[in-house]
Task: inverse folding
């Protein structure tokens, strides 16, 4: 029927290996009294990770975030603070300066903005001496008033693009461009343009230089908003992608100082056969192609508005599919029904030319339209009333790449890894609201979660996640600090079996050194001798000679006392089997307790003596094989007291 | 935000006591080779529970369903069977006769229908000799073709009302009345009337006899269908209540042999503050008032279309609220938008009189409209086009009575119980798709799940659930059999604490006999001396003298061996605390293992000797108190061998 049975139909997604925070020795940074390390910026040229926190900006070493190279404080002065508290905001929580914008202006300066007690301000940060210029500018439209409100920003060619709220109450959403000395170019204040959006991401997609058609670069915005085209009992949320053209200057009369190129479309991330829709987007990562724009993909993490117990999905989209919709898609229009109701339906009428919302290109220039200021009023009026396109942006394969239960993904980054089979794999890193990172790979259409890593000590949300291929690191921002983690933990896989069964494209087994090595970190190794098999076929491992039973570890206990035989299997996909003298032990026996980390035999009796073996059996679905391995072997004996000499008096009783 | 956090905001709903199937010694009935015991009918006059199964009808004793008084088989003959298999249906599963209608005609006869190999048939069952008359009638419109399709039926004054599908494919839904010798009165085949409905329940609500306004009795249907008025990516389901008038005869020209009184409205069961909608209804139970119709309530069990992990809700509605909508509510109408789209909006135009869909009453009779055949064409044409009312039916208190996680409720019955505090409590019994029954009570607006009972051996859905106040029993039909359960398990609460903390309105503590007694089963007891406190205030129990430590059970073990100290606490709401020599034991100690049913100390050392106490601490939220009770006490000693006499040789070494 129509009802959902995700639990039985959905893909299984159990991370193979679970790393605990205390096992990993990650690099961490935080300072006493400073919180909300949620704005991160990696410098491409310098060895720097810039961190915007509450009332402070840090420069950390990107090789090692525990090293703090610089710090500047930026607090709120008395007057804005008083104003803020008078308006009913909390002094301790709201009326502080949360740094939310950190953008590169040039190799000398950053542009930084903070919420500044609900009166956002921006300033320039000199990198030479890590000091603020101290000539704060109005931050309205560039930075949010409210530190807890959604917000996104990107700097493109010295111009700051933001998605935020324009007023104190947070009720007036805005997508804007700040390009000094011009005033803001912005969206129309209308629910057709933006309807209670939650901004998650924005970035530029460049056109190739010297294109014959003279197409403009575009800035894409990703957000969730309240749908106008659908209806249910309450508010229906919908994930969107919107775009504007970099060269947009606004209209001459109509849409003066407003975008003439603002268009938006819905993102679809759903399981069509189950009628299940993931309609809230939380983060987007754009994987830009090296050369051709055609290679550019983007990944989004989604949940459902009704997914109250945490069903998260990752969908991937081709940028060309997005472009197709924006350049050729049908527009929607608002129609009035019976005087009082409205409904958004497809516009089937005649379209003005040039196409509404299109960027200026050579074809338009031939018609003497050299900038958006020259666009005809008909085109501008149309795009003002019809910013929404009907055609959906469908994910690659028409379904999520990954669905996980009991998890709320908040952040995503993706790295392309060239494996030894000469194939490029997209490795997906997703951060959760509980401080955990999932690392997944798509192999032959099937997703495999290789690892889950407890990155944060506390079970708090991952607020920001960056990846540096240069340092082979992930950088995580949270309310309580910054954590740096390697992208792979190959060396922690101690056997070839474990290294191969991990199915990690970063890792391969080096039979010479008998270690699991990171092929991305040290690509110049003699890769010919390395073993990697992303289907998890551990039979490719060199055969290991069986341990003779006589070499099993000897465990001797007193009769009636308990014996613990440790056996640690790291893989959550492996089944643990205990054998005693060749036969499999079951839970049924009341004198055995098969725990996660070993076997406990309490009240050991003489019949318990013998050989004990702990076997790990792991099914590798992509290889279609089971792999068994002896993890531990023990010889259990009783420490019997020496038989007493026959006692003549006692024997008379026998 | 708009996102859901049911997990943190929703009411907690953990059943206090869990009863396992094997603990309860329930009465069960099934016969080898017979399955699908899903149609149940309790006889009011006779000691009989009639059971419709696959190809068989049983008469069981309603006092004890293990007693089978009668059985008749009703198999499919060769020709329909061949037809069925030729049409591509499975011989073993589909082309059999599933009995789906069992209704009382009079004290001599039942009317029975079966799917009969996708060619539904009905017959009369003589109760005297429990034989079928053998003159089968066409069952189309009375019984479903498909045994797995949703279906509901009710017999009112010798007329059979059904909600089912009218064709082999199951694509033509129908709500019909069969009143021999007339032909079927039925719904229009139109998505405005019924749009892929799943029928769950139907029943009659009688008007008081001799009402001045001469109002007619009404038959209410409950179902989930695909919404026409809301839109999203896919199909949006919506729970409905529809009603028809008993005296409806159809129209003269318009709506000939169709209902002239078919109207429907949406049922709302939602958490408005969370924007969370339970939009699928699975079962309804009508709690009819003794005298005044105003007392009549109905309960529904709901899930969400997106509740893929099992969030179930129970909503209660006043029947007067339903009547209000049907007699005064606004109609919806289909409007065309831009030629090609439709939208359902409120009808604000002039209404024909008499009110479309209204039952014939004295006012109409004064206008010479004595039956629906006399209704004017304008009224009929209007109701044909406007069967849907705009106003919603809101639940009592505007929210669910009960929300439970990780459970899918399939069935509901409710019994009103007069407690010793002279208050009437509605006790809600809900059956799940895993064979479990929940028993809940609403106390001062807060719901308390008293018990969960594993009624079925297998984890299969409860398909039917009936309650008899006469036998104090619940009857459960499932694919594999019939189970009879008492409505209360008072005597299983062995202490006054447990009896009071259960908060079961059926149960009270009798201090004279020191037993927990069922006050409903034996209401003539000396109720003055009984103790009942539905807030769970166990301080009302007679005080129990403390057990002196010297009377604790002695446990003697050999040094180094393990000791098991059992302690069984039945309440899931209680916390179990172990004390050793007065201090609380924690999980930290590696030589203790605090299990569900006791304490395990392995490798007992001399320092482990002493007193051990198992305490149950239970919080009763309605009483606002904690109740602690000693559940078990032990004295642990070591069985030390007698100290050997000093050995002169050994002492030289010391």
Result:
């Amino acid at each position: 029927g129509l009802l959902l049975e995700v639990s039985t139909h959905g893909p299984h997604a159990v991370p193979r290996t679970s790393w605990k925070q205390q096992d990993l020795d990650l690099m961490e940074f935080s300072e006493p009294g400073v919180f909300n390390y949620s704005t991160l910026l990696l410098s491409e040229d310098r060895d720097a990770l810039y961190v915007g926190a509450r009332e402070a900006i840090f420069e950390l070493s990107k090789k090692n975030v525990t090293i703090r190279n610089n710090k500047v404080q930026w607090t709120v002065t008395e007057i804005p603070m008083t104003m803020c508290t008078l308006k009913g905001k909390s002094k301790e929580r709201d009326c502080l300066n949360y740094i939310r914008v950190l953008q590169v202006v040039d190799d000398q300066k950053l542009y930084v903005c903070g919420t500044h007690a609900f009166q956002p301000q921006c300033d320039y940060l000199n990198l030479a001496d890590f000091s603020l210029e101290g000539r704060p500018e109005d931050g309205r439209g560039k930075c949010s008033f409210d530190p807890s409100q959604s917000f996104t920003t990107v700097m493109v060619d010295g111009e700051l693009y933001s998605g935020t709220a324009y007023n104190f109450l947070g009720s007036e959403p805005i997508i804007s461009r700040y390009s000094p000395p011009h005033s803001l170019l912005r969206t129309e204040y209308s629910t057709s343009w933006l309807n209670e959006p939650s901004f998650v991401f924005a970035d530029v997609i460049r056109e190739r230089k010297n294109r014959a058609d003279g197409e403009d670069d575009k800035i894409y915005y990703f957000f969730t908003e309240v749908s106008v085209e659908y209806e249910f009992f309450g508010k229906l949320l919908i994930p969107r992608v919107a775009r504007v053209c970099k060269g947009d200057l606004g209209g001459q009369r109509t849409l003066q100082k407003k975008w003439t190129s603002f268009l938006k479309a819905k993102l679809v991330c759903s399981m069509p056969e189950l009628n299940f829709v993931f309609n809230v987007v939380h983060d987007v990562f754009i994987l830009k192609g090296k050369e051709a724009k055609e290679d550019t993909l983007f990944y989004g993490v989604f949940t459902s508005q009704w997914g109250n117990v945490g069903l998260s999905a990752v969908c991937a989209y081709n940028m060309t599919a997005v472009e197709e919709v924006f350049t050729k898609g049908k527009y929607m229009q608002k129609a009035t029904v019976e005087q009082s109701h409205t409904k958004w339906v497809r516009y089937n009428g005649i379209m003005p030319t040039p196409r509404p919302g299109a960027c200026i290109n050579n074809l338009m220039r031939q018609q003497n339209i050299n900038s958006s200021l020259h666009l005809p009023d008909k085109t501008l009026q149309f795009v003002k009333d019809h910013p929404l396109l009907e055609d959906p942006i469908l994910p690659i394969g028409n379904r999520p790449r990954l669905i996980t239960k009991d998890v709320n993904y908040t952040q995503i980054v993706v790295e392309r890894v060239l494996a030894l089979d000469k194939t490029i794999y997209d490795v997906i890193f997703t951060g959760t609201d509980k401080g955990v990172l999932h690392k997944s790979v798509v192999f032959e259409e099937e997703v495999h979660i290789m690892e889950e890593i407890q990155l944060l000590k506390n079970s708090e949300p991952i607020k920001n996640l960056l990846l540096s291929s240069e340092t082979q690191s992930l950088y995580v921002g949270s309310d309580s600090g910054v954590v740096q983690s390697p992208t792979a933990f190959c060396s922690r896989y101690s056997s070839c079996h474990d290294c191969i069964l991990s199915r990690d494209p970063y890792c391969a087994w080096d039979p010479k050194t008998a270690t699991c090595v990171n092929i991305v970190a040290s690509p110049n190794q003699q890769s010919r001798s390395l073993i990697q098999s992303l289907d998890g076929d551990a039979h490719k491992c060199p055969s290991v000679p069986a341990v003779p039973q006589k070499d099993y570890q000897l465990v001797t206990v007193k009769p009636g006392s308990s014996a613990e035989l440790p056996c640690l299997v790291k893989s959550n996909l492996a089944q643990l089997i205990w054998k005693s003298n060749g036969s499999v032990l079951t839970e049924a026996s009341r004198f055995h307790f098969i725990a996660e980390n070993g076997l406990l035999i309490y009240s050991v009796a003489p019949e318990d003596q013998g050989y004990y073996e702990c076997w790990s059996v792991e099914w590798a679905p992509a290889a279609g094989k089971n792999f068994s391995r002896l993890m531990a072997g023990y010889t259990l004996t009783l420490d019997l007291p020496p038989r007493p000499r026959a006692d003549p008096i006692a024997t008379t009783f026998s």
Notes: The longest helix of chain A spans residues 319-328. The helical segments of chain A are 6-9, 21-24, 78-86, 319-328, 362-366, 377-385, 496-501, 648-651. Chain A touches chain B through 53 residues (CB under 8 Å).
